[in-house]
């Protein structure tokens, strides 16, 4: 257990500056987007000689929801950049050990512990990066809201609701879905993707030259297995005579099989095919 | 432990941020509503649900209100869509629940059910040449007590040489004979339009086609002409008659006149003759029904609706214009209007009817006020009521009201945000 925790800590430590950069960029750019948009709308309101009609929702009032709707690109940019960096770091977390100075991976593999620990620690670290950035995004919303309230006079403020706020930005809608069950589904699929890529990397490292081809074929096969059942069998037509619940069960079973096989194959190759 | 501080911080940010977000969303409840019985038999409200929109926020929310409370669509999971059968009609879903094996692969088509049998029919096409499709109907039947099922595929000969389509518009059982009413429409090689209805009679004994009864046939009309069945529900029940509405549209004029009035352009349309017929399965008799012209003045009404309903030998025409509903009932065997009922929304507490509909002898409707918002975003109305009325006598059987299920001082504000009523009655 201690080896596992130490390895996780090591991965966090190695990625700390990139993570801090992404977190900082997200905070600063989003706050700037809210500040700039609010300022702009306030100027427009002042120019149009604001009159309080007394209505709860009025074109002459500002809501945080409305502000967020008007910040689309600048608000989503740091999120998309973070996603890109993290996606690139999925292979990066392995290859930096192999391709770095003096092949650090061989020292890691030679440690007196099960090699699976290395595998799980890398997965844990990646998930920690993803969820920490996501948690930061969720936690920064109240801060942005507070800044909006501080900038806009009370009489000019229209109420906002969290569900409406999230609904204003497509990226936020996907990253923080309304239903916790959807959250679990989306991120479980993400974990599945990460594990398939992990296994593909280990295949490539195990067989080198031909390994590239094997890895590509492996990723293609997994993608087909997970993606194809739903459109092929369909949940809203009866071409195969299956009920929708049966189609969904087949798709979920395929995903679980891919998950289990990715873990099994990845760990087996890491243990047996990679020699120090 | 100190060496792990960054890892711990990340863990806390992740759990705190995401947990806090879902906690805040759960706490931020949308206002709860409930359908509360004011008068009459509360059991009649059991199959009723009112679909509407709550618009007192920046984003409008769709919700359903029934006796149990309100259910917002915002928080639905993708699983709700994935696991729900994509059946358009609850009656089909009930058939799947009762006859899972027989219904496999039959989620599309037309159905008939009685105490002993379940029938399913669907149109199928087969390409025989580059521009030639052969049309068939597939008929399957299940004898409920034995659990035995059988079926067959039958060619629709009338579609031979036609480019067009066919529909099943009626499905019935008379003892050991199964009747499939097929409507076809299409044009032949010389572009002449054909339209007709055939009654295919199939034996349950061996699946053989016993006879084909030509019910209606016309040629040379506009391609937009059509025949439909009144009360054409996805699931049919035992009935002696089928009610057909034949709409023959004349050929479009070669130079249609165009009138321009402001921003509106009106193109003269070819006249359409609409005629109703009752078709008796047992005798193959087709009898025209004379229906009185509309009596409500629609041009001055904000909201109008007209619907035709057929059940057990009675054809009912429902006309609504704002706060007035008139029900004309025709006896299809005698081909006469045998009763007329008129209702005013004021009788039930407000000025307008919304989403009226008939189920047998029961009229379901929402009664509320002005459909348009005033300057402050609210609606001018007394309340939102759901009524069930005996359509033959006009007697009120049930009256319920949508009420806010929270502190009384907040009720007016939340109720003012409800609009766009759509009444749904589970069969």
Automatic annotation (TrEMBL), chain A:
Keywords: Membrane, Transmembrane, Transmembrane helix
Transmembrane portions of the chain: 73-95, 116-136, 184-203, 210-230, 242-267
Protein name per its UniProtKB record: ABC-2 family transporter
Protein's organism: Paenibacillus sabuli
Automatic annotation (TrEMBL), chain B:
Protein name: Uncharacterized protein
């Amino acid at each position: 257990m201690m080896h596992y925790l130490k390895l996780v800590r090591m991965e966090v430590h190695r990625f700390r500056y990139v993570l801090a950069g992404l977190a900082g960029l997200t905070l600063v750019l989003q706050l700037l987007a809210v500040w700039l948009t609010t300022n702009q709308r306030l100027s427009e309101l002042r120019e149009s000689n604001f009159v309080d009609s007394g209505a709860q929702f009025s074109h002459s009032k500002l809501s945080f929801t409305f502000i967020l709707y008007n910040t689309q690109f600048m608000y989503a940019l740091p999120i998309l950049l973070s996603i890109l960096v993290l996606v690139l770091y999925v292979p990066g977390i392995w290859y930096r050990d192999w391709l770095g100075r003096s092949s650090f991976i061989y020292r890691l593999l030679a440690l007196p512990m099960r090699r699976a620990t290395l595998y799980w620690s890398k997965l844990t670290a990646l998930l920690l990066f993803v969820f920490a950035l996501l948690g930061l995004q969720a936690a920064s919303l109240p801060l942005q809201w507070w800044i909006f309230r501080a900038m806009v006079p009370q009489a000019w403020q229209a109420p906002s609701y969290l569900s409406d706020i999230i609904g204003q930005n497509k990226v936020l809608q996907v990253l923080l879905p309304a239903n916790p069950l959807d959250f679990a589904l989306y991120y479980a699929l993400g974990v599945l993707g990460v594990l398939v890529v992990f296994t593909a990397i280990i295949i490539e490292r195990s067989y080198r030259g031909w390994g590239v081809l094997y890895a590509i074929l492996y990723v293609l096969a997994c993608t087909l297995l997970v993606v194809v059942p739903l459109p092929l069998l369909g949940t809203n037509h009866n071409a195969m005579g299956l009920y929708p619940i049966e189609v969904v069960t087949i798709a979920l079973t395929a995903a679980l099989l891919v998950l289990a096989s990715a873990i099994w194959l990845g760990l087996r190759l890491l243990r047996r095919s990679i020699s120090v | 432990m100190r060496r792990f501080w960054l890892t711990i911080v990340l863990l806390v940010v992740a759990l705190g941020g995401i947990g806090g977000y879902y906690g805040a969303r759960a706490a931020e409840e949308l206002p709860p509503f409930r359908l509360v019985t004011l008068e009459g038999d509360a059991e009649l409200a059991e199959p009723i649900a009112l679909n509407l929109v709550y618009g007192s926020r920046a984003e409008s929310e769709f919700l359903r209100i029934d006796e149990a409370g309100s259910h917002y669509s915002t928080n639905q999971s993708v699983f709700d869509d994935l696991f729900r059968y994509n059946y358009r009609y609850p009656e089909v879903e009930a058939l799947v629940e009762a006859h899972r094996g027989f219904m496999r692969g039959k989620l599309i088509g037309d159905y008939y059910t009685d105490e002993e049998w379940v029938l399913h029919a669907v149109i199928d096409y087969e390409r025989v040449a580059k521009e030639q499709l052969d049309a068939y109907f597939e008929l399957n039947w299940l004898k409920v007590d034995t659990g035995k099922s059988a079926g067959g595929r039958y060619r629709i000969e009338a579609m031979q040489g036609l480019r067009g389509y066919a529909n099943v518009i009626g499905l019935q059982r008379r003892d050991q004979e199964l009747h499939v009413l097929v409507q076809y429409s299409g044009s032949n090689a010389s572009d002449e339009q054909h339209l007709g209805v055939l009654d295919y009679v199939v034996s349950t004994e061996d699946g053989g086609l016993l006879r084909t009864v030509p019910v209606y046939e016309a040629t040379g009309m506009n391609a937009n002409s059509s025949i439909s069945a009144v009360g054409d529900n996805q699931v049919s029940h035992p009935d002696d008659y089928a009610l057909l509405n034949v709409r023959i549209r004349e050929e479009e004029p070669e130079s249609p006149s165009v009138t321009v009035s402001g921003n509106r352009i009106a193109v003269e349309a070819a006249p359409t003759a609409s005629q109703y017929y009752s078709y008796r399965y047992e005798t193959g008799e087709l009898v025209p029904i004379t229906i009185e012209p509309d009596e409500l003045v629609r041009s001055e009404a904000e909201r109008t609706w007209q619907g035709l309903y057929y059940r057990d030998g009675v054809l009912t025409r429902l006309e609504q214009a704002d706060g007035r509903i008139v029900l004309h009932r025709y006896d299809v065997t005698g081909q006469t209007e045998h009763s007329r009922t008129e209702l005013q929304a004021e009788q039930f507490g407000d000025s307008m009817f919304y989403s009226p509909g008939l189920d047998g002898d029961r009229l379901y409707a929402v009664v509320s006020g002005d459909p348009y918002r005033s300057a402050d975003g609210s609606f001018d109305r007394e309340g939102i009521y759901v009524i069930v009325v005996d359509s033959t006598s006009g007697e009120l059987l049930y009256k319920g009201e949508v009420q806010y299920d929270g502190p009384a001082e907040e009720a007016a504000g939340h109720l003012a945000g409800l609009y766009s009523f759509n009444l749904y009655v589970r069969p």
